[in-house]
Design brief:
Largest sheet: 10 strands, mixed
CATH class of the largest domain: Alpha Beta
CATH architecture of the largest domain: 3-Layer(aba) Sandwich
Distance between the termini: 73 Å
Radius of gyration: 45 Å
Number of strands: 49
Structural class: alpha/beta
Oligomer: single chain
């Protein structure tokens, strides 16, 4: 119950004791003085089962020894003083809750605590239900003082009431035995509470020992301090931040393979080597920031995410509910059902939930000739074909009655033949004579011209782009299809069953849960069209690319309609203390862009592995790009039409049966160590008699330094066996609370035992008379030293301190403090190393009369301000990262470029001056030659330069000898090769078709002539057929003429021969349309020769591989790709100043040049590009990406600050901005500016007029053939056709320039009407790679067929002579319009 607050005075203590004695006589042995019935022993934690539970004597309980009011008051006063000190020191400003029972001692203590200003609630605890009245929620910090003689109700409450507990509160529990504190810490709530303090009665009078829970630091509790004589024996942090540093604790993470979030890398035997992926990178960054080690485990029951079943879940969820693991990761969605039972971190990504379905097979290509028109259009054309013959026959007949009309037009068979010929634009020999017939034929010409233009324009697109079959895209269509819905995650069923969409809800009947052990079975069912898979988009896209994509074509797809988007989180135990820190670090990672970067790296690596690598990209590299020659696969429909000519045979049989027969296809040398040891010996103090060092003042000084500057640090004490420093001082130092290790140093090998690595801060007290072992060690062992540690060295002479500062390790250590004996009694002078502030050491303060004479900072941050120090930067010219600006006489004025900008930002922020200098030996990055490094690497290894720049890659062999900064960029390593000369233009007429297509046409030409001869010959047996067609030579000539669309004067007379010729017209019309459309592209775009694009082709070519960085050969030599590794046999390293020689060899096709992509692109743009055309190029296949860093001396003190500033500069986008400025400036300089810009101003832009060079093939054909008679050309139409083509070519050039500059990557829709000019332009636009839809607009209803919605950006090219339908549509259809389109 909550007690009423009333003040009890000291005079009333005797009355309290007497009242409790009387009460005890009236109670049964099983009931205590509070009226609280004792719990049975079996209900207590195991740790308390052996405690004695006898009834309390005289109301005093276990404090029975306090039999007098005086002793009770003294004990209460001591305990009150302790608790009030804790409250004032640690809980000031917190809401204070006091839990107590009716023990006399605690009643007195409670009265004192009520005097505190922050008391909020006092609760008397008799049983577990009283604890439900506690206010466990606090707006700020909450403090809980627990004064319970019998804590069983509290322990039971802490094990059962998980949501009614303040996990962030600070608990102070007073107890007789430490086991009671451990019992509270061992409860389910106690294990997740960061701050629990135990105050336990000590062995001496007035002594209380203070214990602290360890949380993730270890098991149980450990002693922190002791309260004795009204004060703590030493001042420790009673409530330290246990989540800032986990001190190497091992945390368990439940996970499983779920690419690309979590991927497994195995060795050749199938053994798991490590995990990687986006989620794994998040956990590894958390482990690095909080200093813990993660142990990944898969759920033991074989389930994946798992579900909650009556409080005992399966899979990952079950392990978290049972507190068997600390966290769970595997693309975990933030869903309500999980939020109710687990604690979820802040989201670090988000994904949509989509359906994977099979791709329906495309419509067969043989149907392509039928695609350009809608079925209704075909029906209208068919009706026209049927009607035009009889109408023409009727008009011809009636005209013949009124005048001299051609008699053939009055015959129904010939009129149909004549009308069909006009529809497919075949010139006819017979010419109407009467005006009435001519008017009808004129309109028939106009009609057929529009039909054929519209057909030919759309036909080219359908031949090149295979038409997709109608596919299932919505949930409604999925529901109606009756396909099975497969899911891997157990938590998706509630999303479906609780949906308000009846179609989605209906999918619950087709729902199938798959454990995910054999995903191949799931994918097989999806691929076969039996089911669809519901999963997140990242997972589906990854598997589509790696499993179902070949040559850029996928056999499965993601449906357009998806479910909701979900945030992705890390799952934690309910009320886990981890959440607070994890959320902060996730926000840092997200803001820094590190999550996306790690994901990108993981995906790049996965693509190189045998587990996840796809062959789709390799085969794609070999695909032909640009304009494509039409193969026999594209032309199936044409050949089928050709085969329909057999109808003529059927007609021939009919004719034969109905008539009578008629006769007429680094290390220092041994001598240097010896000299160093001699220097140390000369500094050694040679004393013949013991000297008093004033141990009291020295020990007090050291204790003050430790408490003031090294509080909370792990402390290491180094001393030797000399009598100079007495054992008394050592024993005093061992009493310090943070002492970690004491090492007796006799020689260098003893120093190898020192723990030089500390997860937090490390302090080193050096009490050595003989300094030689330490000086030798600091010059030799560079990787076994605490460079961030704080060193306090006690010495008799300042020269010894300077000797330590002058060692190789000492020069890179930020904090070294020298304590040197002064001239007066009890005086010690304190010196500090200068690091980058100057040479040697300087005095800081003096210890005299038990205090420092001045309050100077002993360990200042020497890296926040370098005080104008000059740092040497080794670098060299390497554009565009590092460029030189020179005067007209060649004098270097200054450096600029991306990396120079980064160093200038560092210098400005840290207040130092950078002195740039090229390596003295003339080398660039440098190599290891006879155990000695050259170039930049050599200067860093010898500590001659402070940092190095020059597009330095983060590579393993460098990591062994220098220190890397954080990466500020990344680059791929690529091959520069010569651009092969294009295929000669005279071959252009052969390019539009694939060789197999040409072969098929040749066969067709060869075969068609004899077939026509046979048909005509037999037709002549049944009627009056043209005698010329019955001659084999003339029939072949006739067919050849039809293939070139040349008008023939001889007309077949019999219907069987006419049907054959009609299909031959249709066949040749489609053939010439496709040829002419594709020929235009090949004439304008010169076809490149077959080029070397892959490392395999490079290896097989036998060309030399030129390098200027020998370090790349190590990566090549270690490659698992046999072709890349084979390039080691043909590589040659050149000096950096011989780049011109390398480029010359590349231009001659003798070598390829391997270097980073940005460097190569810069030189291609500035040296090898003329009028927009480059003579060299980058091969498509590149090697690995490398991070670019600043190189530092091994264990350099600069790294810590540089990394922070690089992250600031990177996040601000300043690097990219400055890089762009540098490149813009470089383009204006004489040294790097390209002359291409000036020369290009004279170039003709847009569409190019066809020159003699374009038309070489045509003239060769003319030379090879016979010239035609001058009387056969349509010279009257040539002028008009030429001006139309010229105008169309100019307009096409403009539009293609706009598309390439502004609409590249957008879905392109072309709207046009049947104007000839626009029809020619549309044919050119179809060559653009992002064409999506071409719509002929005759009226407003045609615009309804346009796809106005685009997943990315949408582009719309409008070619309408009469825009009225568009204007009307734009005024009326407000919801059917792409407002974001271009």
């Amino acid at each position: 119950m909550v007690c009423s607050l009333r003040k009890i005075t000291d005079n009333s203590v005797d009355d309290i004791l007497q009242h409790n004695k009387n009460s005890a006589q009236l109670q049964s042995p099983d009931v205590d003085s509070m009226g609280l019935q004792r719990l049975p022993t079996s209900s207590l934690p195991h740790i308390l089962t052996n405690q004695t539970r006898s009834p309390r004597s005289a109301g005093q309980g276990r404090w029975g020894e306090l039999t007098t009011a005086k002793s009770l008051k003294d004990t209460a006063a001591l305990l009150s003083g302790l608790l009030m000190a804790v409250v004032q020191q640690e809980l000031l400003g917190c809401d204070l809750v006091v839990l107590h029972d009716d023990v006399d001692l605690y009643s007195l203590v409670v009265q004192d605590l009520l005097l505190m200003t922050n008391s909020r609630q006092v609760v008397v605890v008799r049983n577990e239900t009283d604890l439900a009245e506690v206010i466990w929620v606090s707006t700020g910090c909450g403090g809980y003082v627990i004064l319970l003689e019998y804590p069983e109700p509290l322990l039971s409450f802490a094990n059962t009431h998980h949501n009614t507990w303040d996990y962030k509160g600070r608990y102070v529990m007073v107890s007789q035995r430490v086991e009671q504190v451990e019992a509270l810490v061992a409860t389910r709530n106690g294990k997740k509470t960061e701050h629990i303090l135990g105050v336990v009665k000590g062995g001496q009078e007035g002594e209380w020992r203070v214990y602290m829970n360890m949380l993730y630091w270890g098991e149980g509790v450990r002693p922190v301090t002791t309260w004795r004589h009204h004060r703590f024996t030493f001042h420790s942090d009673l409530f330290p931040d246990k989540l800032a540093d986990f001190r190497g604790a091992v945390l368990k993470a439940s996970t499983f393979e779920f690419p690309p979030s979590i991927m497994y890398h195995h060795d050749d035997n199938g053994t798991l080597l490590y995990r990687y992926g986006e989620d794994v990178a998040i956990i590894q960054n958390l482990a690095r920031a909080l200093n813990f080690t993660v142990k990944f485990n898969e759920p033991a029951d074989g389930y994946k995410w798992g579900i909650n079943i009556n409080g005992s879940g399966t899979g990952m969820t079950g392990e978290l509910l049972r507190d068997e693991v600390d966290m769970g990761v595997a693309n975990l969605f933030l869903m309500g059902v999980r939020y109710e039972i687990l604690t979820l971190s802040a989201p670090f990504s988000h994904e949509g939930l989509c359906f994977m379905a099979s791709v329906e097979p495309p419509v067969p290509r043989w149907q392509a000739p039928y695609f350009p028109f809608h079925p209704s259009t075909w029906l209208a054309i068919l009706v026209g074909i049927i009607l035009f013959g009889p109408i023409l026959c009727l008009v011809g007949f009636l005209s013949g009655q009124c005048g001299d009309e051609v008699s053939s037009l009055a015959k129904l068979g010939f009129s149909w033949y004549y009308a069909f010929g006009l529809l497919i634009r075949e010139p006819q020999v017979s010419v109407p004579r009467m005006d009435s017939t001519r008017v009808f034929v004129l309109f028939l010409w106009l009609y057929s011209m529009i039909i054929t233009i519209a057909y030919s324009t759309n036909l080219t697109a359908f031949l090149l782009v295979q038409k997709a079959a109608a596919s299932m895209e919505t949930i409604k269509e999925l529901y109606e299809s009756g396909r099975e819905l497969t899911v891997i995650g157990e938590g998706f069923l509630p999303i479906i069953t609780e949906s308000t969409d009846p179609n989605l809800k209906g999918l619950a009947h087709a729902y199938k849960l798959h454990k995910g052990h054999d995903l191949d079975e799931v994918f097989d069912e999806v691929h076969e069209g039996k089911s669809v898979l519901l999963e997140n988009t990242g997972f589906l896209h990854f598997h589509i690319v790696t499993h179902f994509t070949h040559r850029g074509v996928s056999t499965v797809r993601i449906m357009k309609e998806c479910l909701n988007q979900y945030n992705i989180v890390i799952a934690l135990q309910r009320n886990s203390p981890l959440k607070r820190k994890i959320d902060v670090i996730i926000s840092w990672l997200e803001e820094s862009g590190l999550i996306k970067y790690e994901t990108h790296k993981a995906l790049e690596f996965a693509a190189t592995t045998k587990e996840y690598g796809s062959t789709g990209e390799d085969t794609k590299a070999n695909q032909e790009e640009g304009v494509v020659a039409l193969s026999t696969d594209h032309m199936q429909g044409l050949f089928i039409i050709a085969m329909h000519q057999n109808m003529s045979t059927q007609m021939l049989v009919y004719e034969g049966s109905s008539r009578e027969i008629y006769t007429p296809p680094l290390l220092p040398s041994t001598s240097q160590y010896r000299n160093l040891r001699n220097v140390g010996l000369s500094l050694r103090i040679g004393l013949s008699s013991p000297i008093s060092l004033d141990t009291d003042s020295l020990s007090e000084l050291l204790k003050t330094v430790v408490q003031r500057e090294l509080n909370g640090c792990d402390l290491v004490i180094l001393h030797d066996d000399a009598d100079l420093y007495s054992v008394e001082i050592q024993e005093l130092l061992l009493t310090l609370p943070n002492s970690r290790q004491v090492v007796v140093v006799r020689n260098e090998t003893d120093l190898a035992k020192v723990v030089w690595v500390s997860p937090g801060c490390g302090g080193y007290l050096i009490l050595m008379e003989d300094m030689e072992p330490l000086l030798y060690y600091a010059n030799t062992y560079h990787d076994m030293w605490g460079y961030r540690g704080r060193y306090v060295m006690v010495s008799q002479r300042v020269e010894q301190v300077e000797a330590l500062v002058a060692t190789r390790n000492g020069k890179k250590t930020e904090h070294i403090l020298g304590v040197v004996k002064g001239g007066q009694e009890g005086e010690w002078r304190v010196y500090m190393n200068m690091l980058y502030w100057g040479e040697g050491v300087r005095p800081v303060t003096t210890w005299r009369h038990h205090r420092f004479t001045s309050q100077s900072q002993l360990f200042p941050d020497k890296l926040s301000d370098f005080r104008g120090a000059v740092l040497k930067v080794a670098t060299f010219e390497f554009p565009p990262s590092i460029m030189y600006y020179e005067a007209d006489n060649g004098t270097l004025l200054y450096h600029y470029g991306e990396e120079i900008t980064i160093v200038q930002n560092l210098a400005q922020t840290l207040n130092f001056s950078a002195r740039f200098a090229e390596p003295a030996d003339g080398d660039t990055w440098g190599y290891l030659i006879n155990d000695s490094w050259t170039g930049m690497m050599g200067e860093l290894v010898r500590n001659e330069a402070d940092m190095g720049l020059g597009n330095v890659f983060m590579m393993g062999y460098r990591y062994e000898v220098i220190t890397f900064s954080a990466p500020f960029s990344h680059e791929s390593v690529c091959f520069m090769a010569r651009v092969e000369p294009p295929v000669p233009r005279w071959q252009a007429p052969s390019f539009p078709f694939h060789p197999w297509t040409w072969l098929a046409f040749l066969v067709g030409i060869i075969v068609s002539g004899p077939i026509l001869f046979v048909v005509a010959f037999f037709s002549g047996q049944f009627g009056a057929e043209s005698t010329s067609l019955t001659k084999i030579g003339f029939s072949c000539y006739y067919v050849f003429g039809l293939h070139f669309r040349e008008p023939q004067v001889v007309e077949p007379r019999m219907n069987s021969t006419r049907i054959f010729v009609l299909f031959l017209w249709l066949y040749t019309m489609i053939l010439t349309i496709t040829y002419s459309t594709n020929l235009t592209a090949f004439l304008l775009v010169q076809k490149p020769a077959a080029s070397m694009e892959t490392t395999r082709e490079l290896y097989e070519s036998g060309r030399e591989m030129a390098l200027i960085c020998q370090g790349l050969t190590l990566s090549i030599a270690k490659s698992r790709d046999p072709y890349i590794k084979g390039l080691m046999n043909v590589y040659k390293t050149y000096k950096h100043h011989k780049l011109d020689e390398v480029f010359d060899r590349v231009l001659k096709g003798k070598s390829v040049f391997l270097e980073n992509e940005e460097f190569l692109n810069f030189h291609i743009a500035t040296q090898f590009t003329h009028r927009g055309v480059s003579r060299v190029r980058l091969m498509k296949e590149c090697l690995t990406q490398y991070n670019i860093i600043i190189a530092l001396q091994r264990n350099s003190a600069l790294k810590r600050k540089i990394d922070i500033i690089i992250s600031w500069v990177h996040e601000s986008g300043l690097v990219g901005h400055e890089n762009r400025k540098a490149l813009e400036f470089a383009a204006t300089t004489k040294k790097y500016g390209s002359a291409d810009k000036e020369k290009s101003t004279n170039q003709e832009e847009g569409v190019v007029a066809l020159s003699i060079d374009h038309m070489q093939g045509l003239f060769i054909l003319v030379v090879l053939g016979c010239p035609r008679s001058a009387g056969q050309g349509r010279w009257g139409e040539l002028t008009t056709a030429k001006s139309l083509k010229d105008t169309a070519a100019l307009l096409s050039g403009l539009l293609m320039a706009v598309v390439q500059q502004e609409l590249l990557g957008c879905d392109l829709v072309v709207l046009h009407d049947d104007v000839d000019l626009y029809s020619l332009v549309v044919q050119d636009l179809l060559l653009v790679t992002n064409s999506r839809q071409v719509v002929v607009v005759r009226n407003e209803t045609d615009l309804a067929e346009v796809i106005w919605v685009s997943t990315g950006c949408g582009g719309y090219v409008i070619l309408l002579e009469y825009p009225e339908p568009l204007l009307s549509f734009a005024n009326t259809h407000h919801n059917t319009w792409d407002y974001k389109g271009r």
